[in-house]
Write a structure and sequence with these properties.
There is one protein chain. This protein is an alpha+beta fold and 197 residues long. The chain has a single domain, classed as 3-Layer(aba) Sandwich (Aminopeptidase), CATH 3.40.630. Helix content is 21%, strand content 39%. It is built from four helices and twelve strands. The strands form two sheets. Strands 1, 2, 3, 4, 5, 6, 8, 9, 10 and 11 form a ten-stranded mixed β-sheet that branches. Strands 7-12 form a two-stranded parallel ribbon. Helix 3 links the parallel strand 8 and strand 9. The chain starts with a strand and ends with a strand.
């Protein structure tokens, strides 16, 4: 039996592996809620193209995310009424980033969405675009969509507590910490406890 313990320096995860497969990992998240108001920046969404994630453009997301392929495919098939993914590109069709949203009643891999209208998760910004306000622009687009098209009023996200740059960006764009979540994830699928947010 080959057992490894890996501590990622930028992420508060301690993960245990056997033969290259993750047995379990420890997570420590802040739960944040979108407040909007005076704290949020008005974001320039010009030259930002957005398309829904589907089977045709899923490959880019597969290469960038920690989620197993089966989880993303499940979002597109089994939970399509509860989940949507958004892929962002510039005017030259270069991918800038993506994010997923799970709606009330859905089960994201780390949370059950029960006490908010929408949960934003798996936010990814291409390395070349980090530190340039891209996360705020992408979130601005998705929040406007959630409010205008989906009627969402309570929008939350979970972020690792030591992801300082993401937390700073979220706060700058109108998000506020409203709670905490600590859990163990087994086989990248089963969380104990499995929080409802």
């Amino acid at each position: 039996m080959n057992i490894q313990m890996i501590r990622f320096t930028r992420k508060p995860i301690i993960a245990f592996y056997i033969h290259g497969r993750q047995l379990f990992a420890f997570y420590n998240h802040w739960i944040m809620q979108y407040n909007g108001g005076a704290d949020s920046e008005e974001s320039d969404e010009s030259h930002l193209l957005c398309e829904k994630i589907n089977n045709a453009n899923l490959d880019y997301c597969r290469r960038q995310t920690a989620f197993p392929d089966s989880v993303m495919e499940r979002y597109l098939k089994e939970q399509s009424q509860f989940a949507e993914g958004f892929l962002f590109k510039d005017e030259n069709l270069n991918v800038l980033g993506f994010m997923w949203v799970m709606y009330r009643g859905g089960n994201e891999s780390q949370y059950r969405v029960r006490h908010c209208d929408a949960l934003v998760f798996d936010v990814f910004v291409d390395e070349k675009m980090r530190g340039k306000g891209m996360c705020g622009r992408m979130l601005s687009y998705v929040i406007r969509y959630l409010k205008e098209e989906r009627g969402a009023s309570t929008i939350r996200l979970g972020v690792r507590k030591n992801n300082v740059s993401a937390i700073k960006s979220y706060k700058k764009n109108g998000w506020k910490i409203v709670g905490t979540a600590k859990f163990v994830q087994f086989f990248r699928r089963i969380n104990i406890p499995y929080y409802s947010i």
